[in-house]
Every structure is written in structure tokens, then in C-alpha cells.
Write a structure and sequence with these properties.
By secondary structure, the chain is mainly alpha-helical. The chain contains 16 helices and six strands. The chain has helices at 8-23, 39-52, 56-66, 124-148, 151-154, 158-175, 182-189, 191-197, 203-206, 217-255, 262-275, 277-297, 301-313, 317-339, 354-367, 369-373, and strands at 32-34, 72-77, 83-84, 97-98, 102-105, 112-116. The chain has a four-stranded mixed β-sheet, with helices on one face. A hairpin with a 6-residue loop joins strand 5 (102-105) and strand 6.
């Protein structure tokens, strides 16, 4: 199944997309150029685009992008730095991938969007939100920035990533692609806090500043450098904490038969963190390097000029427009989730409340002390 019926915009758009993508893939005069390496990739790209037309928000944005004079190239590529947390898909609509599922290159005249070919093991519905994130989020706004003369520093605005995250989440909600997953509710509850947690996933994220931080980029980079160095120093303890928390939650799932509960999700969450810990540490170290380089470059005349432009960009009309859209997307996300009965303003649905896990563990210590005491690094868990 492809989800809800197409919107009115989508029904208008489908014939045009069928001609553009199916009959003329890679045509020189098309705004969207498919560059598959195999027939499987061609079919996947066509189906993913079709699926996106079932999202009213994506269909409307795609139509705008189709009218753009700049072509956009789409392809699958191998990402050697990403890692799947499973060997075979356990859920065709959920891709447990650490690293970039998609990445966009905007430096050339034609933006290039790459999708990690590891995703081809999963359904096209699972891939569609990532394509929306890259094409309808990043490409759309980076082309606007190029026309407005801000292309050189736009990549350093954190709001660009947060807007793409929100766009992806809205598409998930409208297509009902894992809209019940906890991370969607986390974004809906506080997108700024969600993005802040991801700042040191990579060097690119680390040097992307909020509009407030852009008022003094040097101070912001120094603060972030101090924070990332602390995370690197504490990472061995953090990893041990993940393992202790995982074992505590697993105790409740296995000994108390609490499958399908917050405890089960806690096991899933910590298992993923442990499986991808090497990638996370690499992201921290890359963030440290990029921040050091930014501070070093900022002491040169060229670097100072770029930081001044970043400060000016944060006050520009395009930054205000991006901020306005992000707020609209946030409202749309919450509304879509309410329609599915999956979000309220009072709490985050399905999030792991570790204070509650701690309370439950303390109670269980009284009943089954030997079982919990056997867990390594138990005291580190909280």
C-alpha cells in the first residue's frame, strides 16, 4: 500500500511526473535528473518520487522545484561511513542507519542528491522521507540562498538542517511511515532540542550555528569546542552507561514480559547506540577537528569576512523566511500527529523516561536483588 489517497496537487502533478521520470529519466531539459546505476535503482527512484506525491506538503513543494531552472541530480551511492544496526530488515519501513542516509552537494551548478544504497534493502516508503529531507528541504532552500547571494555561508545555518528534519517528519506523518516512532514525537515536542542533540554527529553539523549563535560565531565555536571535547573525554563512561541501561531494560522485557512497552523501546534505543558507538565517537572527533579549523580560519582576513557574512545572513530576509517555514512545518507536524492520535502537548509519546526506569529499577531491587545486581556498571546507569 502507498498510504493515503493523493492530494489535489498530487493528482495534478502525477501525469507530469510520469512523463518526466518514467519516460524521460535523465533528460537534459528536466528539472529532476535521475542517474541510477542499475534497473533496481531506477525503479526505486521512480517509486519513491511517486510515493511522495501522496503527501500534500511534499507534492506542493515538488511542483515548485519542478519549475526551477536549475536541474537536480538524484542517485544512489555507497556511503562507507554509515552502518546498519541489523543484517536483515526486521521492519521494511524503518531503516536503523547510523550516518548519513542521504547527503546533498550544492557546490556545483546542478545540486547532487545522493541516497545511501544500503536503503535499497527496505521499502520505497521507508526511503521517501529521506529523499524529501534532501531534495525538498536542503536543495530547495540552498537554491533560494544561491539566488539571494548567500550560497557561500548558508550551509553554516543550523536552521537549514532543522527545517529539513521537520519537512521529513511532516512527510512521515502525512504518509504514515513510522509516524508512531518516538523520534517523530520528540521532534514534534521540541525541534530545537532534538537538533541540539545531533550537533556533534558530524563536522558539518558542528559548525552550523543557530541564528542566535551567529551573532557571535567565534564565541559559539569556542563553546562548542569545549563541549565536544568534554563528550569525547567522557565517551568511555557514556558507552558503559548505555550498556547498563540496556541490561536493566532488557531485565524488565525478559523477566517481567514487558514487550511492546517503554522498556522494550529502551532496549531498542540502547542497542542502536551500542551498535553504532564507533560511528558516534568518529562524529565527535570530526566535530572537534572542524571546530578547530573554523576557529583557525576565523583568524585570517578571509575567515573573518566569512564569519561577518554568517552574522549578516542570520539577520537577512531568507533567514526570516526559513524560520517562518520551520514554525509552519512544526505546527503542521503536530496537527498531523494529532489526527493520528499520536501526539499531545502534555507529553512525548513513547519517549524513554529514564527517571521512570530508575524508579522501577529501584523498586525491583527490593524484589529481585540478585538479578539486577548481576548487571555490570549498574551504578553508572543513572
Amino acid at each position: 500500500m502507498l498510504g493515503p489517497r493523493p492530494s489535489a496537487v498530487a493528482r495534478f502533478l502525477l501525469p507530469a511526473l510520469a512523463l518526466l521520470v518514467l519516460a524521460f529519466p535523465g533528460a537534459a531539459d528536466a528539472a529532476i535528473l535521475l542517474e541510477p546505476r542499475t534497473d533496481q535503482e531506477r525503479l526505486a527512484l521512480n517509486r519513491v518520487i511517486y510515493i511522495l506525491t501522496h503527501s500534500p506538503t511534499a507534492a506542493k513543494r515538488w511542483l515548485e522545484l519542478e519549475r526551477s531552472p536549475e536541474p537536480v541530480r538524484l542517485s544512489f551511492q555507497t556511503n562507507p561511513r554509515s552502518l546498519l544496526a541489523e543484517t536483515e530488515p526486521s521492519d521494511p519501513e524503518w531503516i536503523p542507519l547510523s550516518g548519513d542516509a542521504g547527503w546533498t552537494e550544492v557546490s556545483s551548478s546542478a545540486p547532487v542528491v545522493n541516497l545511501d544504497d544500503k536503503m535499497l534493502r527496505y521499502s520505497e516508503r521507508a526511503i521517501a522521507p529521506t529523499l524529501a529531507h534532501e531534495v525538498l528541504g536542503h536543495v530547495y532552500w540552498n537554491l533560494k540562498a544561491r539566488r539571494a547571494g548567500w550560497e557561500d555561508v548558508f550551509i553554516r545555518v543550523e536552521l537549514d538542517e532543522m527545517d529539513a528534519v521537520l519537512f521529513e517528519a511532516v512527510v512521515r506523518a502525512e504518509l504514515n511511515v513510522k509516524a508512531d516512532h518516538p523520534f517523530i514525537s520528540e521532534i514534534a515536542a521540541d525541534p530545537q532540542a532534538y537538533q541540539k542533540k545531533r550537533r556533534f554527529f558530524s563536522g558539518g553539523y558542528a559548525i552550523s550555528l543557530s541564528l542566535e549563535e551567529a551573532a557571535d560565531p567565534v564565541a559559539a565555536y569556542k563553546s562548542r569546542l569545549k563541549a565536544v571535547r568534554k563528550e569525547i573525554e567522557e565517551f568511555p563512561t557514556t558507552e558503559r552507561r548505555w550498556k547498563a541501561r540496556r541490561d536493566i531494560a532488557r531485565h524488565f522485557v525478559e523477566s517481567h514480559k514487558e514487550s511492546g512497552t517503554m522498556m522494550a523501546f529502551a532496549v531498542e534505543t540502547t542497542d542502536f547506540l551500542i551498535a553504532t558507538s564507533k560511528q558516534r565517537l568518529a562524529g565527535l572527533r570530526e566535530s572537534e577537528t572542524w571546530l578547530q579549523n573554523e576557529l583557525k580560519a576565523g583568524r585570517t582576513p578571509k575567515g573573518r569576512k566569512e564569519l561577518e557574512r554568517l552574522t549578516a545572513l542570520a539577520k537577512s530576509p531568507i533567514a526570516r523566511d526559513l524560520q517562518k517555514e520551520s514554525r509552519l512545518l512544526h505546527s503542521r507536524l503536530k496537527q498531523s500527529l494529532r489526527e493520528w492520535g499520536r501526539f499531545t502537548d502534555s507529553h512525548v509519546v513513547w519517549d524513554v523516561d529514564w527517571s521512570e526506569v530508575q524508579r522501577r529499577a529501584a523498586e525491583d531491587m527490593q524484589r529481585h536483588p540478585d538479578q539486577l545486581k548481576a548487571i555490570k556498571d549498574l551504578k553508572l546507569a543513572f
